[in-house]
Amino acid sequence: MKNDISRRASLLHLSSLSLAEKMKSGSFRSLYRGRGIEFSGVREYLRGDDVRAIDWNVTARMGKPFVKVFEEERELDVFIVADASLSMCVGTSQQTKIEKAMECASLLTLASFYNSSPVGAVVFDGELEFFCSPESGKKHSLMLLSHFELDRKKQKAGSVLDSALRGAEKLLKKRSLVFVISDFRAAEWHASFARLCQKNDVIAINIVDSSDYNIPSVGSVLFADPETGYEAVLPTSSQKFIRGWREENEQRKENWFKECVRHGGIPLFISTVQDPAAELIKFFSSRHRHSF
């Protein structure tokens, strides 16, 4: 068991280093293009600086070249909204949705640490389980990781995604990079998500599982909604039911994607069978090439 933990920690470390490199290569800064970056001051010209950034008035006054400094050159705060609700406890692979979500959160925390970016988080189920502002440093990052790695066996029923998003909006004082990691099965989150997107760059990571679209044919089975407790017997051997299940969930997936984009978010699907580090690295590489 100890060897498994050490191996997992080592893999997490290596993967987050690769992810940090992709973020540092320009993916973070490209998020801010055309978003009304504010002028924050001037500094002396350094070799390699873009000559187009030279402030000629200050240069003439000081007798040596100075360049304008904008908000994008400052630290970029990172904030993670992680869903630990009961609906995330499903999974037909080796990992459940909640385990995959927390692995994503851990990777993003470590990558932010390696990039010296302040990082904060909120973890929620039926209530706000944990909440902290973005901070820098190893001690703070390890504290976040300890919350993501908790063995969650007694979650509160329901999902307060809406409250978590509203809390993040109030907490973040400057434009930040926000990752919302959830299955988005909660109700009434759209308005809060839209407001969060107005002041921040929001990447919505929808954790999916094959059971969302495919259900085994095993006869009549009692299903229970983990969030509401509602129970119903479903005819899983019925081809009509199986087809309807798949179509309904595919439509939900498509609607979520459209809603996310409409509100100003950047959608990303990660399944329980995918390597989240590889998917995030691929995502940032693609976004850097196409410039957000």
TrEMBL record:
SUPFAM superfamilies, alphabetized: vWA-like (SSF53300)
Domain of life the protein comes from: Bacteria
Transmembrane segments: none
Pfam (any one): DUF58
Residues in DUF58 domain copies: 42-252
Protein name, as recorded: DUF58 domain-containing protein
Organism whose genome encodes this protein: Treponema succinifaciens (strain ATCC 33096 / DSM 2489 / 6091)
Organism phylogeny: Bacteria, Pseudomonadati, Spirochaetota, Spirochaetia, Spirochaetales
